[in-house]
Amino acid sequence: MEVLLELKAKVREAYTTTLVSLIVSLVIGLFGGTFLGKYFAKIRSSYPGLLIILPGMMGLRGNVFGSMASRFSTMLYLGDLEPSLKDKKVLKNVVLGLMLSLIPILMLWTVGVIQGIRKNTFEILLIIISSTIAVSLILGYFTAFITIFTFRRGSDPDSVAAPLVASVGDLLTIPSLIAFILLLEKAKFEFWGTNILLLSVFVGLIHFSRVRKREILGLKELFMTITFLALLSIISGSLLEHYSEVIQASIILSFAYPALLSSFGNYGSVIAAKTSTKLHLGEIERYFSVEPFLDIVALFMTTPIIGILINYLGLLVAKLTLNVQTAPITILALTYPFMALFIMLYSYTISYFLFRKNINPDNVAIPLIANNSDIFGTIYAILIAKAIVGGI
Fold first, then answer.
1. What does pTM read for this prediction?
2. For the chain, what is the domain count?
3. What Rg do the C-alpha atoms of the chain give, in angstroms?
4. Which label site among 2, 9, 307, 312 has the fewest CB atoms less than 10 Å from its CB?
């Protein structure tokens, strides 16, 4: 009876708190997907290398700033961070997040060149550097704000911050790339000026924030993880580039792809963040503890709603953007909940066993889950797209 009452409370929280943030994240992700769908053909023809890098960029934002949100949440609960944006640790973490983002991006571009990026190679490098600096600054402070604001209102940041941070990252990533592409093609002088300005701001922030070497070394574990995962995301990028024609032909998925990936990552990140906090507070004693599985069951009950919304919002965006009328993807609505369930179980398992190995889940589990969710989500999207266009 006590377990049922606890489950009821968790389901209520899932619907009143987490589902709201998931839906907001979904809408935000579809807004970013609108730009991808509208300019998908242009990217394929003029900047195909971006398709190889894109999943890594999207995943990297979620990895770096999703980890920051989880780290802020743990620090707030332990009293190591004042619930204020004026706390010096906020600026330092934002700058560290920016630094952590740039090196893997350069490595992604290098691997992309090795894999065959030949068209507009140097221009793509400038576009991704400028985009990374601009988006990281915005996303860093958004991460701090949403985590602190949620905490001060008495809600659990782990239930809200990760989905919103990941989706805002998706929202900013694709439009920023498109904006720099259009700026390059229509106003090259302004494009170069913007690049110089953003690099100058980056150097100035490093000096102003007084980031110390020991603080950078303190995130060595996270840096090594996200760098490895960024390179691993080449799998997603190569799949996206190789099957881009199939995804574009499915229509809905060319718009919903970012939202689909971010929704899987959101479910995984929420479970990872909740698990990390409970483990640090000593609330999970063994793998088959009741508490974390109640969290998973409660969130699973929200997945049919998200699956249906991806369908119909994708239809709406395709109609408004390309004036294309198509049918809902029934197979997506039916299979989406079970794919999300798999990712949540995977997320909990990874978080639990990393913690038992004395590895902080905030620094490793969330980036790993976000990256793996992108790979699983890309494979899932390709299979759904092939089913729609008759490829399987």
1. 0.71
2. 1
3. 20
4. 2
